[in-house]
Amino acid sequence: FLKVPMIHWDLSTKRILTMEFVEGGQVDDRDYMKKHNINVNKISENLGKLYSEMIFVHGFVHCDPHPGNVLVRRQKQQAEIVLLDHGLYQVLQPDFRMDYCHLWMSLIHGDMSGVERYSRRLE
């Protein structure tokens, strides 16, 4: 459900990242999604999976995730998210990442003592 455009390293510099052109509509364009029979709820679910895995499993944060950098398109029989602009990422340190995971699990489970404990550890 994810497409990351190919980077053209020969056309890129320290300040310019050149990627392949990929057709699609912005992730916040409901008319585009309706016209192309793309399920908004499925896109939302997949975005959650995408960013959760990126942050909680791999420890990376895409630092510019605005709608202009997230496209959607219909590719064969399924909708696909196209993630653009990979020029700036933050790498989370393992201890921070684990505390952040525990904070979110505490929030999900309504464990307020865990929320307090892990919030303090993240200060």
Automatic annotation (TrEMBL):
Function: Appears to be essential for maintaining mitochondrial cristae formation and mitochondrial function by acting via YME1L1 in a kinase-independent manner to regulate essential mitochondrial structural proteins OPA1 and IMMT. The action of this enzyme is not yet clear. It is not known if it has protein kinase activity and what type of substrate it would phosphorylate (Ser, Thr or Tyr).
Gene of this entry: ADCK1
Alphabetic keyword roster: Kinase, Transferase
Family annotation (Gene3D superfamilies): Transferase(Phosphotransferase) domain 1
GO molecular function: kinase activity
Protein name as it appears in the record: AarF domain-containing protein kinase 1
GO biological process, one term: lipid homeostasis
Gene Ontology cellular component list: mitochondrial inner membrane
Pfam family, one: ABC1
Protein's UniProt keywords contain Transferase: yes
Organism listed in the record: Nothobranchius pienaari
